[in-house]
Give the backbone structure.
Amino acid sequence: MLPLLAQIRGMALDLLFPRWCVGCGREGDFICSACLESLPRIIPPLCPRCGLPQPKGTLCSSGIGWPAEIDGIRAPFRFEGVVRQAIHELKYRNLRALAGLLARLLGEYLLANPIPADVLVPVPLHPRRLRERGYNQSRLLAGELGKLAGLPVLDKCLVRQLYSQPQARTSSLGERRSNVAGAFACRYSLDGERVLLIDDVATSGATLDACARALKSAGAASVWGLVLAREV
């Protein structure tokens, strides 16, 4: 009975508040079928650590000299076009209903490209930024993905203890890494757990790596990052 009621409620909401494609404006869904087909996918071979396209599938130049704690970063899409617009709508324009669709895209990627994971952990916001925005888009994505993948979400295990400027405002890789150094702490013991970190976008991977450092210090056996899009 509950699924039927949920369907009826969803149909009623669609009638009252019709969905429009964030890419082309067509009515029907937040990303229409034509725009879904045109999403800018990241195609292998990839650098095994940072997940960026690499012709031979070997470590890229930045990965070779990076003493990273993160085991690897993966993303289905490039951060451009409709994907970029969808993330901005979710992140900055309060279109939280987009989280389900975007999580489904992450789930499809995860099915085709399995990553070892026992739990999902969203990248946290600092409490000050959380108050400003009102929600954490990464937590929304992780919650929806957890339902699809059948994995528990530890949404309070990782905290951001230092407030810093957004990574997009930093101008170099070194600045990005120093900007998040020591920014995260893990509240719980993760004895032997394989963690999959969830975020919306990765630029240099510095934030994910700083999170991985905190999680591994709490006993995580491995930490991978899965984001919707990467700057390429």
User: Anything to note?
Assistant: The CA atoms of residues 79 and 175 lie 21 Å apart. Confidence is low (pLDDT under 50) at residues 5-16. The longest strand covers residues 194-202. The beta strands are 72-74, 77-78, 119-122, 158-160, 184-186, 194-202, 222-230.
